Each structure stands twice: as structure tokens, then as C-alpha cells.
Amino acid sequence: MLVLIACFTPPASARPPRQHKVKVAGLAFRHIKRVVLDPGHGGTNQGAVAVTGAREKAVTLAIALQVASRLRSKTNVEVILTRDSDEDIGLRNRTRLANAHRGDVFISIHGNSSADTSIEGVEVYFLAADSADSETARLIDREEGVPDGADRKGVPWSLESVLTDLDYAWVQALSERLASNLAGAFAVHLTPRPKVRGVRQAPFGVLKEARMPAVVLEVGYLTHPVEGRALLDEGRQTQLARAVILALAAFDRDMGRARSPQSARPHKAKGAVRQARR
Ligand SMILES: [Zn+2]
Questions:
Q1: CATH code, 118
Q2: Which of 14, 33, 129, 267 is the most buried (most CB within 10 A)?
Q3: What is the 26 CA–ligand 1 centroid distance (Å)?
């Protein structure tokens, strides 16, 4: 089952500023101390092939490096990169690294692809413990192949031994909030605006053992003739990096308000959540 948040409404904190240029200078984070950025793929694991022939692994690394550079220079948070060069570090090592460094946030960055080159847009995923529908299963196959030890049909790898039920609910609520902040930032801080396809849940292997709020960010479709080229553009990548940082700033504010898993749940538009069987 896939939980699809339709009728997406950006959170108030993500509404566009009056000035045209989005500023990220001098952001002081109060609750997030360490951000783990995970550029998808790397080395022989090349990921999707863009419309120009460029490889996803290079696009994800370029965006992650921009986010890391700006976070380090403009904010007070520490940044951990799961890779900063063209290497294949393996799937589970990404989350293990995030846990070992006690990250407060984990963002795995990817570019999507489809045989239907008319499909475009941003998707943000947080963990679903149950099985994926066929479309989502194909996405996970493209992104992760067959993860080592993964059980895609049911129980996640070893969630129960990693987090208590209460902690799991808390992390899930915050992950949903983070995904919502990212989708909201992409909807309002990019020019031209991308299509925001929504916040979704899927049993990504890379999210299963995370002890912190964790998402897979699909920044757009590399196979779309316009979006695929834009994602290779350094200026567009800079915009994407800014949007990620503004989403993190909104999330940091939300963490200050969140006193319980219940209060951390995103504010949703009327009837915004529907259970979708696809
Ligand atoms: Zn990918």
C-alpha cells in the first residue's frame, strides 16, 4: 500500500519570500546539529542515464556537494557526506555511516527516470514498512537493485532492533515532516517551478535502519527532455541546493515545536491524505 499525499499544500514556513532572490545567508539552526547527505549511486553503480547521456551518480554528487558547501559556509550545522567522490560505497553503509556519526537528518539524493519521457517532477519519500506497489517496486529496483539482506515483502531489515516502537513512530513522524518541508521548498523556491509529484512512502532499503529523520529526495526526472537537461545545469543545481537548505531551516523550526510524535505530524489540507492502492 502506498500512502499518497495529494492536494499538496506547502507549509506556511515554506511560502515564498517577498524578495525575488532566495537568501540563505546566516541561517542559525537550533535543533539540527549534523546533516548527513547521501549522493545516490557512485562508481560502477551509475544510476539512471540522463537525456544527454550524463549519469545520475554525477548529478547527485554535484547537488550534494553544493548543499554541503552552502550549509558549511552559511549555517552552523556540520555536514557528513556518505561519499564525496565517484565511488560505490554500498547501500547499507550509507545509513550505517549516518548512524555512526549520530546525524540529526539523513537525505539520500537521487534523480528519477522513466521509459515515458513525458514524466517529470519531484518526489520525496519516507519509509514505509509494508510492501511496495508495482510502480514503487520498480523505482526501488532502479535505485537500489537487490539490497543486501532486504526483505521487500514485509518486515524491514532490523528496524525492531534499531529503534523502539515509540522511537520509530517519532522518527517516522519527523521524516514525514522533513519530506513535506522539502516538497514545499521545491514548490516555492525554484524558478521555473518543477512539478511536485508529492510526498510518498516506500520501503527503500537505504531508509530502513536510519535512527534519525530520513528521506529519499528524487530531484526530478533525468529522462525528461527539459527537466533532464535542467538538472545538469549548475545554476539549477544551485537553486536546488538553496531549496534543500531552506527546507532544512523550516524543519529545524518545526523540530522546536514538536514535543511529541503526534504534534510533529505535518499539517495537512482538508482531505489531503488518501490511501491509494495502485
Ligand atoms: Zn538513484
A1: 3.40.630.40
A2: 14
A3: 31
Distance 112 CA to ligand 1 centre (A): 6
Strands (E) located in 140-221: 196-202, 214-221
Residue 3 in contact with residue 128, Cβ under 8 Å? yes
Query: In whole angstroms, what is the distance from residue 76 CA to residue 33 CA?
Result: 8
CB 56 within 8 A of CB 40: yes
Task: Tell me, in angstroms, the distance from the centre of ligand 1 to residue 101's CA.
Answer: 23
Check whether 112 has a pLDDT greater than 90: yes
Bridge-based pairing of strands 122-127 and 196-202 is: parallel
- From CA 42, how far away is CA 38, in angstroms rounded? 10
Range of the domain at 230: 39-214+223-263
Q: What confidence score (pLDDT) does residue 102 get?
A: 95
CA 109 to ligand 1 center in whole angstroms: 7
Q: How many folded domains does the chain comprise?
A: 1
Half-sphere CA count of 66, side-chain side, radius 13 A: 23
The answer to whether 71 touches 245, Cβ cutoff 8 Å, is yes
Q: Measured in angstroms, how far is the CA atom of residue 140 from the centroid of ligand 1?
A: 9
**Does residue 149 belong to any structural domain of this protein?**
yes
Torsional sign, CA 208, 119, 134, 199: positive
Q: Is residue 21 a part of any domain in this protein? A: no
Q: Ligand 1 is a single-atom ion; what residues have CB below 5 A from it?
A: 40, 47, 110, 143
SS (H, E, C) 30-70: CCCCEEEEEECCECCECCCECCCCCEHHHHHHHHHHHHHHH
pLDDT digits (tens, 9 = 90+) for 115-163: 999 999 999 999 987 767 888 888 888 888 754 444 444 444 444 446 7
